[in-house]
Amino acid sequence: MRFIPSHSRNRNNDSSLRLDNRRFTYKELEAITNNFQRVIGQGGFGEVYDGFLEDGTQVAVKLRSESSAQGVQEFLVEAQTLAKIHHKHLVTMVGYCNDKEHMALVYEYMSEGALHEHLRGM
Ligand SMILES: Nc1ncnc2c1ncn2[C@@H]1O[C@H](COP(=O)(O)OP(=O)(O)OP(=O)(O)O)[C@@H](O)[C@H]1O
């Protein structure tokens, strides 16, 4: 499956993923997560890590593991869908990483308390 036509690929032609969100390098993710130190969850794509951006914003970094049952395309679909959607009942995607073999999605962190508050307001 293609997400953008080949004629509109970005100039360096490195990816079929083009989003308005911030693009992180794997090195930046290492810094943000303090070398992937704290696992906060486990999803279909792999582990989810706690992290902090330079401005102190807490984020959840969903790193796609090589052994993930879900494929690269599914990962890209999630990234591309969330990049387009901004809704008060959906967690915001801050950015993504598509750096050689590393793929990750970066979301605003949502604590359980915040989630319950969120759901109560629905
Ligand atoms: N934005 C977030 N803030 C805080 N924790 C998160 C966030 N996103 C995910 N997590 C943690 O990571 C776990 C797995 O995330 P999530 O369910 O989104 O993964 P997934 O890959 O979509 O799972 P699946 O596809 O198997 O349903 C969550 O249960 C939660 O503990």
UniProtKB/TrEMBL annotation:
**What keywords does the record list, in alphabetical order?**
ATP-binding, Nucleotide-binding
> Binding of ATP: at which residues?
K62
> What residue stretches are annotated with the Protein kinase domain?
34-122
| Family matches, as InterPro entries | Kinase-like_dom_sf (IPR011009), Prot_kinase_dom (IPR000719), Protein_kinase_ATP_BS (IPR017441), Ser-Thr/Tyr_kinase_cat_dom (IPR001245)
Q: Where are the transmembrane segments?
A: none
Q: What GO molecular function annotations does the UniProt record carry, in alphabetical order?
A: ATP binding; protein kinase activity
Q: Does the keyword S-adenosyl-L-methionine apply?
A: no
Q: Which domain of life is it from?
A: Eukaryota
Q: Mind telling me which Pfam families this protein's record contains? A: PK_Tyr_Ser-Thr
Q: What is this protein called?
A: Protein kinase domain-containing protein
Q: Which organism is it from?
A: Triticum urartu
Lineage, top ranks: Eukaryota, Viridiplantae, Streptophyta, Embryophyta, Tracheophyta
